[in-house]
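<backbone_tokenisation>
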Amino acid sequence: MASFVDRVVLHVSGGNGGHGCVSVRREKFKPLGGPDGGNGGDGGDVVLRVDGQTTTLLNYHHAPHRAAQNGGPGKGDLRHGHRGEDLVLSVPDGTVVKDSEGNVLADLVGEGAEFVAAAGGQGGLGNAALASVKRKAPGFALLGIPGSSRDIVLELKSIADVALVGYPSAGKSSLVAAVSAARPKIADYPFTTLVPNLGVVQAGDVRYTVADVPGLIPGASEGRGLGLEFLRHVERCAALVHVLDCATLEPGRDPVTDLETIEAELAAYAVDDALDGGGAVPLTERPRLVALNKVDVPEARELAEFVRPELESRGYRVFEISTASHEGLRALTFAMAEVVAEARAARPAVQEAPRVVLRPKGVRGPGFTITREERNLEPLWHVRGDKPERWIQQTDFNNEEAVGYLADRLAKLGVEDELFRQGARPGDAVLIGPEDNGVVFDWEPTMVGGAELLGGPRGTDLRLAEFDRPTREQKRREHQERRDAKAAARAELEEERLAGVWTESVQARRGAAPQAPDEEPGA
């Protein structure tokens, strides 16, 4: 089972906002208590936060679906719903957040750095908050807005000053163990190192970190071996150290060939331009040192002395070292400290930002757009905008008064006037929101505004009521049907009277024998 994961796909969802409450205060001796429905609570956010105790993304590899808590619904007696708790996800230092298309959303560097990956939804207003001078007792409330959901990619890029690169079993892990207190796994077979190892080195007054990157092989930049997975850990390093094995017994390999192969893989790897404010330096343009390792072996020392002039002629600073006998390690550590100090000095100084007073300006324009489209050879007016789409999500379409309130808000925003201006006709279809999750309705421009001025029970809107006025022909037909029904009822009653049904029932109650219809009394 994997114990180190540096790239995961995370599905995050913010909490849904709670619905507002519709309630009217009822208390003895207070018949007109008024609306007292509380507001719904906002949903919680999904927050990524850098934690120094977290070193891997393994937890999110096993549980990639994360959601924050929903907001509570409002209740009567002005009791507002609780706000959903934020879900804080701890990530290692140096985590890069990207969207599904590969665009960088955040670069989390430094203890406590945060990024809101998914925002929670807004809670709906209760009818107490919707009450006004004209609308004193609203019979509706606003619904809570669902929280945002999206897929993000988390990539861990180690925070190190110097990266050790080279072939498998070149001695990179041994070098880290020799110059620092780190104790990585060391063995005599290739690909012993499966995860990057970090070590802290103290050279004089300079303290820096060294990263042991798993072994690179030809084609690493294209995904062969482990190189593509861990080359991202080299991107933040200020300098590179080529660790070359001078005692290898593999045919066709020598320090110069190994160096050229690794340089070709570093040149083929594309550094993320979004790092360091878009000024990331390619790997082949960063300071590089060469360490000829395993010179404690006589044949390796001879080979190192042979190839050193050629490497120095190419502009590299070459050091002959042995991680077994610690030969040449002191000079190498001080050379790395010198390169790190120069890189730190070249960084622009972080100045304290002056205090700036922000005065936000009003939003210019209507805040929405209307475009004419065609659907089934019929015109379709598509309305997009933050406010109209949010209002659609907050509306309970099972409540006529809520729908009328939405119509008033859209008219006040200017949607009706813009549809008139663009040439919309009564009966045209109007779509508000995205095509897959929007609301389509027929436009009726003759609907007047001001539902709060109209009478009617709570939860209804007289403008949405359907009144069918019958024609004269319908009235004549209904009048004739009623006359025919009355005539049929009278005829049925007459037949029952002639049959003696009524007389029999009366005599039965009196206890007398029934008489024939033509028999005279007392005969």
